[in-house]
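pinned: reference chain
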Amino acid sequence: RVGELEIYHEQKRVIMAGREVQLNHGEYAMLYCMASSPGQVFSKAQLYAAAWGEEYLHGTNSVENIIWRLRKKLENDPKHPAYIKTVIGTGYKIEITD
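pinned: its C-alpha cells
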C-alpha cells in the first residue's frame, strides 16, 4: 500500500482510492516494480525488463506510453501526477505521500 494505492499481488488487483483499476500485463508489472520500492528511481531499462523480461531498445517509447496510461488510470490529474513521478534524465518512481 502506498497512500491510496493498494496492490494485491496474488490476485494482480489494483485499488486506487477505493475503486478497482483494470491494468494490462505491462502496466501492472511496471506499477508493481515501482511500488515494491517506493521512492527508488527505476530506469526505463529496468521497467521494460520488469514488464517483458527483455532488454530495453533505445528509441522505443513503450515505457513512456505505459507510464502515461498508468497516470491516466491512477492519478486525479495525470499531467501533474501525485504518485508516479518522472525523475528527469533518470527514470520514474512512486512517490511516498503522507
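why pinned: The chain has a mean pLDDT of 92. The CA atoms of residues 29 and 51 lie 5 Å apart.
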